[in-house]
Hints:
The protein has two domains: 157 residues, Medium-chain alcohol dehydrogenases, catalytic domain (Quinone Oxidoreductase, Chain A, domain 1); 142 residues, NAD(P)-binding Rossmann-like Domain (Rossmann fold, 3-Layer(aba) Sandwich), CATH 3.40.50.720. The chain is an alpha/beta fold. The chain has 13 helices and 18 strands.
Amino acid sequence: MLACTYSSHNATPSITEQKIxxxxxxxxxxxxxxxxxxxxxxxxxxxxxxxxxxFNFKWPRTFGFDFAGIxxxxxxxxxxxxxxxxxGQIAGLPQRGTGTVANYIVVSKKxxxxxxxxxxxxQASAMPLVxxxxxxxxxxxxxxxxxxxxxxxxxxVTGGAGGVGSQAIQMAKNIFNASFVVTTASSGKKETxxxxxxxxxxxxxxxxxxxxxxxCEGEDDKKFDAIVDCTGEAWKCIKLLKKxxxxxxITTGPTIEAMRIWLNGAGADPxxxxxxxxxxxxxxxxxxxxxxxxNYFAGGSGLQKACINQGASFHHLIGAPAENGVLNQIxxxxxxxxxKPVIDKVFAFNDSADAIQYQKGGRCxxxxxxxxxxxx
Length: 376
C-alpha cells in the first residue's frame, strides 16, 4: 500500500510504499480501506517532534488522525461488517499502520461509527477530531445540550472560521441552544462563513480588539456563559466571563488534568493501536510534584486562578477521541442536518505534501481534505 510518511521528526513528508497493516479482529480491531483523510494543526505539532519524549513510535510515522472509508476486515460481533462505510479518529498519535493518509489503516472499533447515508467520504473525514473537540470543549464550559432556550445562553468562540471553531459555532446554536454566539474572524469570506454557520456577531480581529469590543464592566448579563478559545487568547477572555461561566482552551494553558485524561484515555489499551507511553512519563504525571510543575510552567494554574477570581472556571482540552459515544452523536447530528462539514480545499492523494503545507499556512476556512480514493 501507499502512505504519506516521514522518517524522522521534521523530515519532508513523501508518499512511500508500506506493508498493509494487519488487524487483530479478535480484540476489536478493524482494517479500513481509506477513501478520505483530513489534515489538522496537531499534525504539524506532532510532525515536528513535540511529543517525542512522551511516546515510543513505530517508524516511519504516517500523517493523519481523521479518516473515512470502507471496512475490509472485522470481527464477527456484527457491530461492523465488511463493506460498511465508516468514519472516525484514531486513538492517540499517528504512527506506522495507524496514520490515516494511507490506503489502509488499523483502528479500534471503539473509535469508528457508520457514515450517515446523506454524507460523503470527503464530508465525513472532515468531522471527527474537530467535532469531538468542539463538543467536549462546550461541555467543559459547563453548558448542556439540554439548556433551556429561555435561559439566553451566551457563547464566545475565538477563531470561528477554523476547524474546531466552525463546529463550535454550529453546536452552540443548534445543539447547546445558545441564544447569542459571538466569534472572531477576518472580514470578507470568513466573516460570511461564520454568519452562515450561525454566529450572531463576528468581530474582525485584524481591525478590532475583540476583548475591548465585548468588555462590559459591571454588566454580567452581557458577559458569556461559555468561551471556547481556539486561537491562544484565553488571557484576553477572562474578564468576559460571567460569574458561574466557564472557559475551555484547546491551545493555551495545558493542565495536568487535561494531560492525564489524554494519556489515560487516548489508546491506553494496547489493542487501540496507539503508541506506547515512554518509560517514566506515566509515573511523573501521576505524582503530585510532577503535576504541579506541569501546571506551573505550562500556564494552566495561572489561568485557573484568574478565572476563579472572576467567579468562573478554566479547563484545557487535548483533543483525544472519545469512545464512539460522542461520535455516534455527531453522526446523528449530521443525519439531522444540525451540523455540516466545513471544507476549505480537497487535494489528491499524490498531492499530500502540498495539502500538509497548505494547512500549515493557517489561513484555511474549515478543513483540508486529502482524497485517497476518488469517489465515482
